[in-house]
């Protein structure tokens, strides 16, 4: 069991989230036994992985008597949407900075999907052009609010710091318990990796549980070496916070072969993965994170990376609200049921 009782925490999500088999996709691909951890079903503001992180982040904010959450993300940020929803749940305000990270995204990109939901949750928003240090921009916005008499709590992009990563240490324990309850061995966990907090939390949590389950992070933005260094840095900070000792560097595994044209730009493999999951299992992926992560898993199966008979769990981080901002590219994609 993890020792996390000393950390402030609020209840925001539905848990434990389901661990479901994907039998049709397993048969279709003819490889390992495929399962999906449904963190798209965490409940808060249409769900997603940030809810687990926000339980600890908002818990800390409440302990500090904050009255407004300040954070940042890309325009179609799942994190900003869930942070805004968490603020509503706790009777706080939310201020979000949105980076124009995706170019030539279409006229509706800044008003539909997650942005529409940000407004529904009452968040105040500022847009920034791409390429800035967005955490620094958001910290400056928090400082300005403090000068105006507010008590802001700053949350980095993706909720990815040692406090937020605790949420995925909890998820690691949840998956280990669920597998044990069904007398199942998990051979691999596969996920999209971006701001690092989800992968770092899983790696730290599994280490604390003395579990040897490897976590394959499929990068959605950065090159492999950069992403490994970033994840490992947060693993170390999370491990120190949890007081669990040193986590070996070889625990952080990243594949950067599915980034495509960059962050928020779905590659052909992303689009195929989205339709494969929807048509085979009735599951909605998003074009930014889970679609690229799923595409990586599918190609690894085709390449024989996993052994036949392995139990492979895909961690679904949510984000289906962003599909509405990508209607143009999705509506023109010609799906073919290839193995």
Structural class: alpha/beta
In DSSP terms, counting alpha (H) and pi (I) runs of 4 or more, how many helices?
11
Strand element count: 10
CATH topology of the largest domain: Rossmann fold
Task: Indicate the proportion of strand residues.
Answer: 15-25%
Apparent shape: globular
Overall radius of gyration: 19 Å
**What portion of residues is helical?**
40-55%
What do the pLDDT scores average to?
Answer: 97
Distance between the termini: 40 Å
Most strands sheet: 6 strands, mixed
Low-confidence sequence ranges: none
Could you state the oligomeric state of the chains shown? single chain
In what order do the strands lie side by side in the largest sheet? Answer: 1-2-10-7-8-9
Q: Which second-level CATH architecture of the largest domain applies? A: 3-Layer(aba) Sandwich
- SSE order: EHEHEHEHEHEHEHEHEHHEH
- For the record, the count of structural domains works out to 2
What's the level 1 CATH class of the largest domain? Answer: Alpha Beta
